[in-house]
Specification:
Two copies of one chain form a homodimer. The first copy, chain A, is mainly α and 244 residues long. Chain A contains eleven helices and two strands; from the N terminus they run αααββαααααααα. The first copy, chain A, starts with 5 loop residues before the first helix and ends in an 11-residue tail after the last helix. The structure holds a DNA duplex (30 and 30 nucleotides).
Chain lengths: 244, 244
DNA sequence: GGACGCCGAATTGTAAGACAATTATAATCG
DNA sequence: CGATTATAATTGTCTTACAATTCGGCGTCC
């Protein structure tokens, strides 16, 4: 159990403070100086906490205006996470399992809401259309994530959607090496899924979506096999030191 | 475009630095002092950046060892999702939906793993036994959360478990007013669920668990009806400290 | 009387220096 | 050779100070 630093404690206290006061995005917080006094730490420690939270958009700071509560945006989070993907490896199998649980778990509600509100289908359709028009890989990657996030968000279960945003960000790197023929397959799969949902058949849609996500699992196995045979050839890899 | 603060610039430079050097988790970074000199800023600015990245687990810092590239963990990121939860204040219905999706979503894997490893059943059983011996409400509350967390953790999908831990915490306040007769029912429900899982019948277990969680939904409707007629003042009782 | 600009004060942003806390490495002793 | 202690390097925290930014009011000019 790692000991928490003061700035982390301050961050935690800020959270409970926000909860206690029932603060909503936009509400003002005490100034750094007041927080320092209230928490019994120096302004530096408070700053390290608020600054870190500021990176994530959780708090907003400006001179003279002071601190205020921001809105946590997964976009913001993913900005700082993005460069880390190349380095960190979360086990793909578990990520896929997670995706399947979260995405398929919302499907019944998506179908229900779709029946009441046709615009949900239209939105999903629009994203998939945009995906068809994508030419650059970056466009496609973004659209792919957007589709799956919108799908879960369409369930109306916002907590689930927030978590899913995060998972998608983690997953992004595995999508990177997809060939163009796979794109087309994926887009067809999306269309099948939302069309099936519109008919109210969420069970078939669940099977389709599960298959759609499981494609990555097969791909990963191939990659690993390749890596193994390559590794067998040269087995003396030591990572370089970091100092300049 | 908002002007970037120096610490944000430092964070960005750290990114290009890491990418250029091709660093992997565990690799060492220059010290705060060296970075400050290299980037032409004070150590304070460097610290604000590394601290923020440290919150996310992207960098790891320890005295004498210095800075190193860290491994991003779902658990770590869940801490920031908790801010999201705190600020968003989701209605109970959505939390229940979330719980159902996450907890039932893991059941198939729990059953599979249980077949291979009987100790999983034993552990769940032990927690439920402890629950039977509980006398104080606080004991029961803790045990209840422990059971549901262990259940999801038993699926072996760690990201899902991390998220579930979070949901349980936010759900806890709704459990507070349960009567003792409900306890007994809940414990019987737990037993049924794990016994059914041991038989490998995860589908029946899914139905049982869904029902078990849905009990809270009914209760909430009653409470709301009462609250409407009373139209009482709101009580915001949340106390907490930084958990380790 | 109203719009415009300017000035001052409050607050965050950045800096430098010092010391405490922690821990990896080296030195020492049995 | 192993365990223990000493040392040094590095982060963690505090204090103080000042620069940068911006909000609010005040005065001036039309």
């Amino acid at each position: 159990m790692p000991k928490l630093s003061k700035s982390e404690i301050v961050a935690a206290k800020l959270r409970t403070y926000s909860i206690n006061k029932g603060l909503k995005p936009g509400d003002r917080l005490p100034t750094e100086g007041e927080l320092a006094e209230q928490f019994g730490v120096s302004r530096v420690s408070v700053r390290e906490a608020t600054k870190a939270l500021g990176f994530l958009g959780i708090v907003d700071a400006a001179p003279r205006r002071g601190l205020s509560v921001g809105k946590v945006s997964m976009k913001r989070l993913s900005r700082y996470l993005s460069f880390h993907f190349a380095l960190a490896d979360y086990p793909l199998d578990e990520l896929i399992d997670t995706r399947i649980v979260v995405e398929t778990g919302g499907l019944r509600r998506v179908a229900e809401r779709m029946a009441k509100d046709p615009s949900i289908y239209e939105q999903l359709n629009a994203v998939n259309d945009k995906l068809r028009r994508a030419t650059k890989k970056s466009e496609w990657l973004q659209g792919e994530v957007e589709f799956h996030c919108l799908l879960v968000a369409s369930s109306g279960v916002r907590a689930l959607a927030a978590f899913n945003d995060l998972v998608q960000v983690f997953f992004q790197k595995f999508r990177a090496g997809f060939s163009k023929s796979r794109w087309k397959n994926g887009i067809r799969g999306h269309q099948e899924i939302i069309d099936t949902l519109r008919k109210g058949d969420y069970q078939t849609a669940t099977a389709l979506l599960t298959e759609h996500i499981n494609v990555h699992r097969d791909r990963d196995k191939l990659l690993k096999k390749k890596a193994r045979s390559k590794n067998a050839a040269k087995s003396g890899e030591v990572s370089g030191s970091a100092s300049a």
